Amino acid sequence: MPKKLLRKVRDFINTHEMLEPGDRVVVAVSGGPDSVCLLDILHELAPEYEITLIVAHFDHTLRPPEDQGETEFVQGLAHKYGYEFHTAKASPAIHSAKGSLEERAREQRYSFLEHVRRKTRANKITLGHQLDDQAETVLLRLLRGSGMQGLAGMRPVRDKVFIRPLLSVTREEILEYLGEKGLRWMEDSSNLSPNPMRNRIRLELLPLLKTYQPHVTEILARAADTLRLDNDFLEQFSAQWLEAHVVREEIGFLVLPIPPLLQLDPSVQRRVLRAAIKRFTGTLRRISLAHVSGVLEILKSPKPQSEQHLPNGMVIKKRYDRLILARKSARKQKPFQYHIEGPGSYCIDEINSCLEIQELTRAEAPPLHSSPWEAYFDAKRLSFPLTIRSYGPGDRMVPLGMKGRKKVHDLLVDNKVPLELRPMIPLIISKGEIAWVAGIRIGDSFKVTKLSRKILRLRLTGDIVRNFEVTQQ
After folding, report:
1. Which helix H or strand E contains 85, and what residues bound it?
2. Candidate from 41-50, 55-64, 114-123 with smallest mean pLDDT
3. How does DSSP classify residue 203?
């Protein structure tokens, strides 16, 4: 049996390219049968693969009578095999009443393993999950309503760091291996508790399912393998689509076009959104199917502007035909107002932007200007002092080319200015009349004509320009 299991694990390692010569591998050892078996097998294979092993044990501090004994047991194993040993205890936060105990324990355990990996300059972390664990995971996620990605179970290799060499081996095979080699292990009394749900699946549901299908463990694991292959293909397709369609990406923003996204199959839409969220925040933790479905709902809604707040300090905004992933901002835009006595440069601190005003002769003025943030005015009509202020309800102007007055609000709507940017759009006022809604339209009575001799050039730069361009074609 030992040699047979050794061959089985070796084949699984090779199939999934888990190890390479020179690897430094942190072995997570709890002291239970799975991790003891894992350590012994890797010890047997270490010379063949030319790898270095480091033993790591995390004390969850959840079973004080047993925890110290387990730590000493694992330390003894490391000494027996001649390996470097690292251990740590969970922080008091693990006993917090907030959230899932299982989740808090998992986060601290993985954080510890990553710390050991960096400290020892290792490049791999190996975990003792086996075939029965995979079956339990699939059932647990099925009962929680997971989709294909969740039902694909645990990966043999994750992020090219975490490896699970025993994922093709059953619990029964592990116990036989330990028995034939005369290896001891520590029993975890919490595994016999009906809580959490995973234990109930192990102790009650799987035994019941085996009365219907004796090979249910292997069948569930094979199903996970099949789903993982399909899922990987769809994930790769979604990642390629995302790469090809990102309109703009910088610190604080990621922008996608909505029309082509809605043309995708619904299954791929969800995956693209998940890929975009992960790309933007670096994680999908706490992002549920309900969150992604909520984003799709606002995309399909006839409302031109809406938004969905997500965990991890993120908000997804629908702004006309653009989807904007952004960080939540606690700052509310303050109104502003400045008086301008003559040409020069004026900073508007509230929007982190600057207005430059330059006086030109007719000959100096260019025939064309392409930026909406640059405008030219007849200097006789646009006379100092000027006022630059934020937009307010009831503001009206006579836009270039029109006769009657129009609400500034309607101009902003017509030009698809996002809700959060409207308070940032500066208005230039001369003698009580709006001469320029910056970036949008100048006033008709302030335009340059053939009779204009002196011209004022106004140019706006800064955050307002950058933020506005994020949302535009």
Report:
1. strand 84-89
2. 55-64
3. I
Closest CA to 317 of 417, 423, 250: 417
With vertex at residue 334, the alpha carbon angle to CA 331 and CA 340, rounded to the nearest 5 degrees, is 140
Average pLDDT, the chain: 89
Task: Tell me whether strands 124-126 and 162-163 are parallel, antiparallel or unpaired.
Answer: parallel
Residue whose C-alpha is closest to residue 318's, from 287, 296, 342: 296
Give, as one character, the DSSP assignment of residue 193.
Answer: S
Q: What are phi and psi of 456, to 5 degrees?
A: -105, 125
Contact between 326 and 253 (Cβ < 8 Å)? yes
Q: Each residue of 274-306: pLDDT tens digit?
A: 999 988 888 887 788 888 888 999 999 998 888
**Are the C-beta atoms of residues 188 and 66 closer than 8 Å to each other?**
yes
**Beta pairing partners, 310:** 314
Q: How is residue 312 written in tokens? A: 């991890």
Alpha helices (H) along 213-307: 216-245, 258-262, 266-281, 289-300
pLDDT in tens, 340-367: 999 999 998 888 899 999 988 877 777 6
With a threshold of 0.90, does the pTM exceed it? Answer: no
Position of tokens 């836009």?
399
In 3D, which of 466, 443, 469 has the Cα closest to residue 376?
Answer: 443
Give, as one character, the DSSP assignment of residue 443. B
Q: What gap in Å lies between CA 83 and CA 30, rounded to an integer? A: 15
Residue 473 has pLDDT above 60, yes or no: no
Task: Report the chain's terminal Cα–Cα distance, integer Å.
Answer: 66
Which of 157-171, 365-379, 447-461 bottoms out in mean pLDDT, i.e. has the lowest?
365-379
On whether the CB atoms of residues 380 and 455 are closer than 8 A, the answer is no
Residue 428 β-bridge partners: 388, 436
The SS3 of residue 33 is helix
**108 close to 91: Cβ distance less than 8 angstroms:** yes
Q: In whole angstroms, what is the distance from residue 309 CA to residue 288 CA?
A: 13
Spatial distance between the Cα atoms of 473 and 470, rounded to a whole number of angstroms: 8
The residue among 65, 315, 293 whose CA lies nearest residue 190 is: 65
Token representation of residue 332: 């509310």
Compute the average pLDDT of residues 67-76.
93
